[in-house]
Hints:
The complex is a heterodimer of chains A (418) and B (167).
Chain A: E1 20-22, H1 24-27, H2 29-40, E2 46-50, E3 59-65, E4 68-74, E5 80-84, E6 99-101, E7 105-106, E8 113-114, E9 120-122, E10 129-131, E11 134-136, E12 154-158, E13 161-165, H3 173-188, E14 194-204, H4 209-214, H5 221-224, H6 226-231, E15 240-244, E16 251-255, E17 297-302, E18 306-311, E19 314-322, E20 328-337, H7 342-351, H8 363-378, E21 383-385, H9 403-416
Antiparallel strand pairs in A: 1-21, 2-13, 3-4, 3-6, 4-5, 7-8, 8-9, 10-11, 12-13, 14-20, 15-16, 16-17, 17-18, 18-19, 19-20
Chain B: H1 14-33, E1 43-53, H2 54-59, E2 66-68, H3 71-84, E3 90-105, E4 108-121, E5 127-141, E6 144-154, E7 159-160
Parallel strand pairs in B: 1-6
Antiparallel strand pairs in B: 1-2, 3-4, 4-5, 5-6
The complex binds fe (ii) ion.
Amino acid sequence: MNDRTHSTAPLEWHPGGPSRVPYRTYVDPAVHAIELERFFNHDHWAYVCLSCEIPNAGDFKRTSVGERQVIAVRDTDGTVSVLENHCAHRGAQFCQKDHGNATELVCPYHQWSYDLKGNLQGVPFLRGVKSDGRINGGMPGDFRKSDHGLTRLKVEEWNGVVFGAFDTSVEPLRDYLGPEITPWYERIFDGRALTLLGYNRQRIPGNWKLMQENIKDPYHPGLLHTWFVTFGLWRADQKSSLVMDAHGRHAVMISSKNEGGKGDVTQGVTSFKENMTLKDTRVLDVVPEAWWKGPTVTMLTLFPSVIIQQQVNSLSTRHIVPVGPDAFDFHWTHFGYADDSPEMTRRRLRQANLFGPAGYVSADDGEVIEMQQAGFRQHPDYQTVSELGGRDIGSVDHNVSETLIRGMYGYYRKVMGV
Amino acid sequence: MNASANNLPSRLDPFLRAEVEDLYARYSACVDSGHYEAWPGFFTEACTYKVIPRENHERGLPLATLAFESRAMLEDRVYGITQTLFHQPYYQRHSVSGILITEVTSSGIAVEANYLVIRTRSKALSEVFNTGRYIDRVVREDGSLRFAEKCCVFDSEMIPNSIIYPI
Ligand SMILES: [Fe+2]
């Protein structure tokens, strides 16, 4: 199958199933354009922001759905609108603030103004300009302001998270997640008020799908990440399960930490450091919380745009914003609950040292994704092999499987028609 | 210390200034040299060290990209850098300028400075990696100056993949 001759043939997939993904899938601009159209700009729900980022009327946040910039803004009636950031007049990306509070949205170019639901309100010289007893200019008589609003996405705000979709015929968000994923979503977002702790932002020079795969891949954490295997935060001998939705597009990796240390799963694993101890253990001062109801880690991958992380006491959303086929921006939003004690907030912040662009276990994920992209670019006609645990697709009650990656590509191939 | 009412030194002791500049020069030399095991020695035992996006800093959001609360945590970070964090190796080069002593009090010397870090990976062009401002508190301990607080507030909106070595 690994045909070494370079070809310009269209994407050719292994006949055996979604366990093999052609490298071209990650590097080809034509493939990328179709992905944006079908996954981000069409009938898929995308992460927008947390409700606690825009709590009050007029609060707005600039963010992205796929490669399109949007503004999430809360109106005086409490509802959130997600509006595309380009003026209906001459196309300017008029909002140049990352966050703020506004009573209306105004494009500086010609002062077209919109209400907080994106309806066009003000058009200078709409009826022309009176001069020397006559009226100059003005818009044509059939010009209707209602025809020239901002592009408005379908929005659902669910227990503290705002999602948007360009295609207003998209299924309800709860159905989109499905009954397998919803309980895990509602375990973290059960309606309690959230507190924003802050952001980390990194540009990872790799294809956006690789980050979804990274968090659908329970094979690597106990091998790549010394901290996980040594301190028992994630390793192959833990009580775990891998859950996916009926389409195979979303997933949850669920596990419970153990005491770490030497065992079958550390045999020959160079990242395992038997004698490693922390000089200051406060970074791993884990205190179980009632809402965990067992698992110490749940990593939700909501296809295509977001990862929701509970890693012991550290909580974050990780928003994927593609930047062409060869890079994506990865925006981390760390949060806690409004009723957290100051000690719990400090604990969440300390454990954040494990995550993000410099984190003990996350920095290397970005590094290996960059290395994958470089490998793909050098030979687009090769293919990846994800066959740990077999070639079939389905939820399993351990973590020694690449089933979630296969699930995602089963779905991907259906939507992409490949 | 000849300090005015708001603790801004009206005529700063030139020897103190030279000593502070020397501290920053030695710090840069250390973190650019690859000898990371010497890095915690620039800090007091109860130090704080933060690398924080300017966005979080200015909005009062507490999350930092890295936030350490003791010299022991810095030593753990050195172990991470040298033993556990997989990464593509790179050179880094700090350029620190505009060292400004803003306050001298009994609790230490408040110092701010601009910094620019250039990253150079193997067989690659050098690139701006991280840039921002140090907002520090320096104290005298056993005769030499050490950082009691070092806060690296970075402008860089997007981190180019990862930060491994100390800023
Ligand atoms: Fe990982």
